[in-house]
Amino acid sequence: MNNPVNNMTNSSSGSTGVNSSEQPDPDFIKMFVGQIPRSMDENDLRKMFEEFGRVHQINVLRDKVTGQSKGRVSIRYVYR
């Protein structure tokens, strides 16, 4: 499966990896996952979660001051 280049943006509350080539289903579900190793970045998480479907967006929750991962992530899949 070929994946398009991801647009990555950073914000104070987290960083987001968005697959801009496809829009998710209108009734998408945002899944929150905890206990993620803080050493994992968006690319590592995308590889892990794409085993279950095409990922549209990954948002790693980060500390506003240090930018360090809080070990929690939200994920949106393209298809439900």
What does this structure look like?
The protein contains 1 helix and 5 strands; from the N terminus they run βββαββ. It is mainly beta and 80 residues long. It has a single domain (11-77), classed as Alpha-Beta Plaits (2-Layer Sandwich), CATH 3.30.70.330. The chain has a 5-stranded antiparallel sheet, with helices on one face. Strand 4 (55-62) and strand 5 (69-77) form a beta hairpin. The longest helix is centred in the middle third of the chain and has 8 residues, at 42-49.
Question: Key features?
Answer:
5-stranded antiparallel β-sheet; disordered N terminus; mainly beta; Alpha-Beta Plaits; 80 residues
What's the multimeric state?
single chain
Strand-and-helix sequence, N→C? EEEHEE
CATH topology: Alpha-Beta Plaits
| Unreliable residue stretches | 1-15
Number of helices: 1
Concise overview:
The chain is mainly beta.
List the helices and strands and how they pair.
Blueprint: E1 7-10, E2 14-18, E3 30-33, H1 42-49, E4 55-62, E5 69-77
Antiparallel strand pairs: 1-2, 2-4, 3-5, 4-5
